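note to self: dont lose this again. the chain is below, predicted strucutre after it. 329 aa total, dont forget to put it in the shared folder this time
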Amino acid sequence: MKKDIKRIAVLTSGGDAPGMNAAVRAVVRNAINNDLHIYGIMRGYEGMINGDFKRLETSDVSNIIHRGGTILKTARSQRFMTPEGRKLAYENLIDHDIDGLIVIGGNGTFTGAQKFIEEYPDINILGVPGTIDNDLYGTDFTIGFDTALNTAVEAVDRIRDTADSHNRLFFVEVMGRHSGFIALQTAIAGGAGGVLIPEEDTTIEDLVKLLKKGAKRSKLFSIVIVAEGNKLGTVYDIARKVEEHVDIYDDIKVTVIGHLQRGGSPTTLDRVLASVLGFHAVEALLEGKTGQTLGLKNNNVHFCSFHDAITKSKTLNKDMLRMAHILAQ
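---
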């Protein structure tokens, strides 16, 4: 049954991602455009439990579209994982007469939203995918992925200069505990000599063979992109094992880009994606939609249930992986 939505709230949860502010801005401004009262919940689900709500106006989201991080702050809430915590959160929503909620985050955020809506279905909830990993089912891209990718590629470009100057082999670790989206596209865009991702079984012998093949054509330096969740171990372990079998480089170095990938001003793509999804999340709430995430599929807004978003796997493009291996030779 369609609800008469009057007051909505928005929060950001889990790991921050560049573009979250652009999404918050779009939610606030379209809510006001539709004569809705809009509240920001500080520090995600933890703020919802603590009753940390702030009424937002257009001026509150001015001059934030270019900023990384999130003005609403974010946190991971252990208390929200308990029935008691969710009950406190629900009571705070009711106290503020909140009819609808928009949650911006990743898998953990949507898992919490799914559990909450099962217990309290009278609150309409929609999800906006904000995670640099780009691993959420139901959307081609997630907010923050493009910015993180550009940060990683810029780092690889800089490392390439010193690798070439000193005939070095560099192992560059990028984020991706469970998925290789960042690693794969960084490897292609950065002209890497190899890539190690969680989705593929690769041996040290395979990697050594690839590096030696490059050396045969007088390639005296190389860069290998390593997703942190690859199956061969830590990037330092991999470098040590390769060093035992390869003597074609003057030196072997390791660079971990780490949380640099989370920060910084969002790219144009992330700003537009976040704006589109935030804008349409408000429209969808007014249409009575609930229990779903918004995404972009083939450049069109696409809806997916929370259940599918958190239980189905987003598959890596195997043809792109094959291409990356060929281009690395």
